[in-house]
Each structure stands twice: as structure tokens, then as C-alpha cells.
Amino acid sequence: MIDIKDRVRNAALRSKIVSAEEAAAIIKPGMNIGTSGFTPAGYPKAVPLALAERIKKEKFKVNLWTGASVGKELDGALAECEGIQKRLPYQTNDAIRKLINAGKMQYTDLHLSHVAQMSRYGFLGGKVDVAIVEACAITEEGHIVPTTSLGNSASFVQSADIVIVEINTSQPLELEGMHDVYVPLDPPNRLPVPIVKVDDRIGTPYIECGPDKITYIVPCDIPDYVRPLAAIDDDAKAMSQHLIKFLENEIKQGRMPKNLLPLQSGVGSVANAVISGLVDSPFENLTVFTEVIQDGMFDLIDAGKLDFASGTSITPSPDGLKRFYNGLSDYRKKIMLRPQEIANSPETARRLGIIAMNTAIELDIYGHVNSTHIMGTKMMNGIGGSGDFARNGYLTIFFSNSIAKNGDISSIVPMCSHFDHTEHDIDVFVTERGVADVRGLSPKERAQVIIDNCAHPDYQPMLQDYLDRATKATGNAHTPHILSEALSWHARFMETGSMKLK
Amino acid sequence: MIDIKDRVRNAALRSKIVSAEEAAAIIKPGMNIGTSGFTPAGYPKAVPLALAERIKKEKFKVNLWTGASVGKELDGALAECEGIQKRLPYQTNDAIRKLINAGKMQYTDLHLSHVAQMSRYGFLGGKVDVAIVEACAITEEGHIVPTTSLGNSASFVQSADIVIVEINTSQPLELEGMHDVYVPLDPPNRLPVPIVKVDDRIGTPYIECGPDKITYIVPCDIPDYVRPLAAIDDDAKAMSQHLIKFLENEIKQGRMPKNLLPLQSGVGSVANAVISGLVDSPFENLTVFTEVIQDGMFDLIDAGKLDFASGTSITPSPDGLKRFYNGLSDYRKKIMLRPQEIANSPETARRLGIIAMNTAIELDIYGHVNSTHIMGTKMMNGIGGSGDFARNGYLTIFFSNSIAKNGDISSIVPMCSHFDHTEHDIDVFVTERGVADVRGLSPKERAQVIIDNCAHPDYQPMLQDYLDRATKATGNAHTPHILSEALSWHARFMETGSMKLK
């Protein structure tokens, strides 16, 4: 307990230190629980585990609001006891996903920049009842120093009647000072977000709270349950190469500064591979304004290529996390964490001129993107921040392998089975086959470029055939479709196990 | 000619006054022509008519970039001679629409806030070659005083090598001072748009140009070809009543200030009816931050209900235009025109907390919206600014009649045939039947509320049946769909002339 007490700097506050079980006991059925955490980084662990134990016995449900996905001690534990009525705004957990797709958990899939303000506005079904926030420390003034993510924590703390702080001793105290906490006023009093460079500091290094507002303090030493990244395969390498070549030409054409513009990169192995690939690019003095800091960013920092990275969470692989902790005294000079409302803000994305890079589950020939649903019905993860960045970036790029399931699925289809990003939002598509630059093109022009440059040869003739027949059938209409056939590729896959014609 | 000369205040510049034919002769085949105009307001007339005559004889095409739709002297004349290769970013002209849907004109349908920056970035296929801008006057310094719209004029003038100014003597000089022209710097040098209240003035009352940059000045006296609005019918009245009741409850629940927040309203008869309906509402001291100032706004000003309206164009009915000109000395104190890049900016929409109100062609049970395509293939008008506001508003509302074509079309369908706004973007749906408040709901929850509150009774059982069977067929998946049936309502309409089952 000595370590805990060192981290609770206000002596009077130490009387609020309780066990996880004691803290979890304050939660009532049906409450809205707002927690820290964005990807498996900085989420509370001890109290959720204790809450799950309680739910197993008492059988009730709560609503869980987070920054984004969180680790197994929160999503996993509450899924196992079926303790969640409604989950928002994002998830990546197998057990949660199964419940969502069995109608046993309601899931509201939101743009990640919308969540904090919608919770403050009271638009999500009441306000946050209990905030549970992981912290490195509590200051003398009772303010909360976050850990490896910031997410929606500050807004949840601001709105909640009950605040539980988990002091996580596995999180190094050197994280203090890496956060820039800024909660905008709500309309009609909101002011400009005064960020004009990626490293501008506009807020406080802690979440404002005050000693009176803290209900309980709970010690915890469970580390972030980060996951390994997939090895970088040839397809990911090819996409990275295509991107570099494309950006080199943008610079040559005068459409991009030599050091590019701030990079945003989605979460996951392909996104990480693309960022890592920039180590071997000619670009220097790069900057990042993104959601999640992954291993690739450390590669860029170590290579001397990256001047500064702003995000809302640090979520490397297990090896990457060690590397981050070991190099913390250097990395902390080049990394800043912001609330996701600011990291993902349309205002800053458009002002800074972000290069938005995200991955698609599928895209269609006219340039729409499905980011969320498998075969139009089953939720995979959620839209996350892709919409925040795609709509507002300087240049919006979506990556996808041209095929999936060993070629039985074409990632490029006649019509998406679900739509998260529309034809109005996307500039460039990249698959391992090549680049489709669709800026300024009409739907039929886009279709030809996407089929020619991005589709897999196994599916190119089928896509061309659909486009040609649809064009003829509609008298060359603006967006040719044969509605009875538009979703038939998905239906065929579900019937036969392949989108290919037998 | 005396009148024209009075409006060209720099004596030396008067030597650049030429005929429309002379000015049109400078345009070369394949050029990108960027014009003023946003809806049939403030677009150039004389030079486009002369250009159309030239194209009739010489047979060539140009690309036409505008603010949004424009009047018949521009879109109509250039459609008639098939003189447009590519049109962007929006249109509402019958002849243009026919060419687009016959593959004879390429059309790029863009978010209206994106156009100016994409044109400056060089993302639309080169830069603007010729800017043709309607003006009230040219100042002593050679700057351009716009007329009834601002649109993308300032950016087009900034980028173009050739600038043609049409001095329109039908536009009263009292319009001078109503504009607030601000062109943001491009990344990485962009700064916050410093608007924090709807009436904040941040720029100049003219488009910066300078005498050297003006190539030709052409006199014109053709008035804006504005169109009558449809009479306000019972369905529109019902929607307006539903909205007022909904907003009253938002105030009561503490989710909205008493004088609401700045209103944005789409273009057209339903939007106008909704705004007019507010005259008989209890709301006072209203403000507007929108694209187009229509008759309804004058009703609100005259009723003493509207403190200030910011837009990018003034496009009343023919009677409304007379009313506006006659009352100009008063209206000009309460109306300001901004570039559409600012009027529609995500930054200001989110900061000011706009109530975004737009109309849908169709919506589906899960809360996606089609704003652009008839039966998924034919372009109607375009997305316009609906996406700019819907994504970033404080509260996002879409209006639609529950049925169309005398009941043979249900505006609420199992799956949209085209997607412009997704489930992630919309808070509330209003039809003449009622209000579906879908904030914070999961897809299946949304479906039930939309079917119950908004669908027409003729289609409610069919929609419920689809939802029930899809839920069963997918094992209660997140977004239940039967893909082979999802678009069958549209296919049935095209085959039988009705979405109803025989």
C-alpha cells in the first residue's frame, strides 16, 4: 500500500482508498458507467473485475460507455457475466461481439469524436452516473493524472455524480506531463480549439476533478492487456510502397509539402505496417495527429523521422509496450495524449490538413466503404474514428487487401453490404494491387479506376461485366446498378462459401 | 452604360468593359470555369449565354464549377448546347440532370464545404482557369462586391488566371456591406475560423482581387431567375408542428436553450415550410447559420422572431425577391453572406451547435439516408451541404414525407438504394406521421421507433414483417437484413409501378 499512498498526494484523500469490491458495490443496476480506456490502454481493471463478480451473483445489467475498445478485464469480464445492457461507442472483443450479434447486448456505434459531447448533452440516455478512471496519480489538488489513454475520461468525470479512481501502479509515473486535457464548453458558449500545430498544448496535464468529487480510490497493479501485432506480410508491404510512391508524386505535383502533413493512421496490423514502412521512405520531419500510437510510431521516432505524435492512446504490442516504458524519458518529449473529442475533432483535422489513412472491410466500385459489418448484418468492431478523419482530412485514403478468405471474398464488390463512408468522403484507395486516385471523378470514372487499379484479377472481369451491364441496363445513368444483383455477391458467398461463380 | 460606369469605381478599369461575346471568346475548350452562384442567386448570366452561343457554333466542352445549383442562363444554356464535360459540385437543372443520367455529362457530387479547398489544393483536375463572377460593383482598389450569393467566388478568383466580372445592374447597390469574405489559408498554415457567434464579422465586405487581375468587365441586367415555392401543404404543416413540439420538450429537458441554437435549414418547399412554421412557435430571439436564405427567414424577421441570419445565398421566390429588395435597408442589418466554405464549415457547425434540418429522398429502418439518387441509380440533385451540417450539428434532423408518388413509394424502406448519410450521423427523423428520436439507440431499437412513429400505415406491416423475418434469419444479428430482399422494394416499384405487394 505504500506505493499507492505515494501516488495519492493529498493526504486526506487517502481515507477514500477502498477495495475494488467496496467500490463496485456502489454501482446500481441500469446505471450508465463511463470509463477511461481507448483500445486496451488505460482502462480500469480492478473495479470492473469486482463488478463482474458481483453481477455473477446478483444478476443485473449496466450500460458501458468507454473511449473505444478496452481490455479483457473490462469488456471481457462484463461480457462473460452478460452484465452489459448497452455498449458504446466501439469494441473489438470476441465475447462482446457475439452478444451484440445474438441480440443479447445493444450496441451504439458512434463517431468517436461525438461521444463526449453527446454524453454531456444528455443525448445517450441520461448522463454518466459513475465514472471509473485509471490514473497514475492524484495530485495534491485532487486532480487525476491519466495513464496510457485519455479517451472520454475528462468528460465522464465532469458529468458523473460518482467518481472512482483506479490508481494503477503498473503504469509509470513518468507518464505524468504527457497529457493535454481540454474539455470544450458546450454551445452556445464553445470557443475555437486553439491548436494550430500538432504539438500545441492547450489544456492541463491532469483531469480536473477536486478532492470532494472523488468517491473512492482503488489500488490496482494489473498491466494493460495489449496484444501482439500480426507480422508485416507482403501485401501490407506492397500497400506501404504504393502509398510512398503516391505521396512522392503529390509532393512533385506541388499538392503536398515535402514533410507531408500530419498523419492519421487507423488501428491494427495493416495500419501499423504502413506507418512502419515510412521508416524507409524519403520523408523527414514527419508529424502525427491520430488516435492510437502503435509500434510503427516508435520505429519512426527511433529512425529520427518523426518530430511529434499526438494521439489519445498508446497501444503498442507487448514488446512495444516494454520498449515504450524503457524509452519513456525520450518518447515523452515527442508524444502527447489528448481527449478523443480533440484528437478526432473535425475542426483540427481540417485545419491541420491531416492525411487520413484507414482500413475498409469492403469497398464498392463507386467508392463507398463498409468499415463495420460482415456481409451487411454482423457487427465486426465499429466505425471508430475513421469517419472523423475521412470526412475532414486533407487527403483521405482507405486501405484494403483486394481479397479475403483465401480469395473467396472480393473486398471490392458491386455494392457495399453496409455503408459507413460514402462516395463524397474518399480521395484514394490502396490495395496490394495498386492505387485508385478518385479525386474529382464521377461514379463511373471512379468505378473504372478502382476496377483497373485495385481489384484482384480473379474478380476484375466480374466487376467489369457488372459495370458494363448495369451501365447498359440503366441507360448510362449516374450510378449504374442492377438492384436485383447488386448484393448478389454477398448472398452467393453465404450460400456457397465463395463470391466466385461456379 | 452610365449606370455600369458608376459601379466600376476605378476609372482606369473602365477600359476593360467589353461585350459578353468578347469576354466569352477568351475561353478555350477543356478549361475549368469557376463561377459565382449558389442556387439561382448571384450567378453570371451574360457571359454564359454568349459562351453557349459560341459553343453551338464551334462545338466544344468546358468543365463547370460553381457554388451549387445556378439559374437557367448558366446551367440551362450550357446544357442545351451540351457544352459541359464535367459539372460540379451540385445542380438542380432538368436538362443537366438528363445529361448526367444519360452518361453525356460527368458529374462530381461533393460536400459543398469541400469544394473551395479542393479547388485550391488542385484535387479536382487542375486549377480554375477562368473565374466568372457576378458583382454589384468593383471598388476603387479593384476588389469585387458580390451580389445575392458568395459561394466559392473568392477562392475561384484567387486561383484563376483569368477573371471576368459581370456587373449586374439589376442587383441593388445596397447589397454592399452584407458580405463577409474570408478565405482560409491552406494547411499547414491554416488558423481557426474565428466565428463564435452567428453575426461575427471576420473578413472583408468584398472579394480581394485588385485591378490587374481583372481581365474583362461585362455589363448585365438580367435578374436572378428565382423560382416560386410550392404552397405549404398539410404534410409540411404537420412536420413543422412535430418539430416545434419536439424542440419544446428538448428545452424542458434542459437539452436546449430557450432561444434554441442556430438553425440550418435545407433548400426547398418543405424546408421553407418548417422555417415559416416557427413564426407561430413560442421561440424568440432565434438565429440562423445556414446556406440559403429563403422566404421563411423573412417571415421570421418580420415577425420579430429572428435576430440574425448568416448564409451563403439569398434565394427567395419571385415574390420574396421583391419583398427582399423593397425591405433591403432593414433586412441588410440582419443578414450576412459568407463563403460556403465558412457557412458550411464543420468547425463552425460544431462550435455554434447548429440544429441541422435537411430533407431525405428515402431513409431506411436502420436510420441511413439517401439524399441524392432515385431508385439507387439516377441522380436527382446532389448531397449539397446536408453532410456538412448533419455530421457536425448539435442536433441533426431529417425530414421526409412518409410516402411519395401517391403512396406507390414508401420513403421508409428496408435498405436505402443509395447512401449519403449513415446511421452514425442522424439524431431525429420527422415525417408527417411523427418523430423518431433515435439518439443513442442501437440499429434494431432505431428500426422499431422509425417504423412505429414515422412510417405510413400502408407500409408499417410490411416493414415490421421485414424486420421480424430478418431478425430471425440472422439470429438477431446487429443489423438484420435479408440481402436477397433488402432492395426488392425498389425492384418491385420499377417493375410494377408500386412498392406495394399486389
TrEMBL record, chains A, B:
Recorded GO MF terms: acetate CoA-transferase activity; acetyl-CoA hydrolase activity
Biological source species: Anaerosporomusa subterranea
Domain Acetyl-CoA hydrolase/transferase N-terminal, chain residue ranges per copy: 12-219
Gene3D superfamilies per the UniProt record, alphabetical: 4-hydroxybutyrate coenzyme like domains, Acetyl-CoA hydrolase/transferase C-terminal domain, Glutaconate Coenzyme A-transferase
Keywords linked to the UniProt accession: Hydrolase
Domain Acetyl-CoA hydrolase/transferase C-terminal: 320-466
Domain of life, per lineage: Bacteria
PANTHER family: ACETYL-COA HYDROLASE (PTHR43609)
Listed name of the protein: Acetyl-CoA hydrolase
Family membership noted in the UniProt record: Belongs to the acetyl-CoA hydrolase/transferase family.
Residue numbers binding CoA: G266, V267, G268, S269, V270, I361, N381, G385, K405
Active site: E291
SUPFAM superfamilies: NagB/RpiA/CoA transferase-like
Record field: transmembrane: none
BP GO terms, sorted: acetate metabolic process; acetyl-CoA metabolic process
Coiled-coil blocks: none
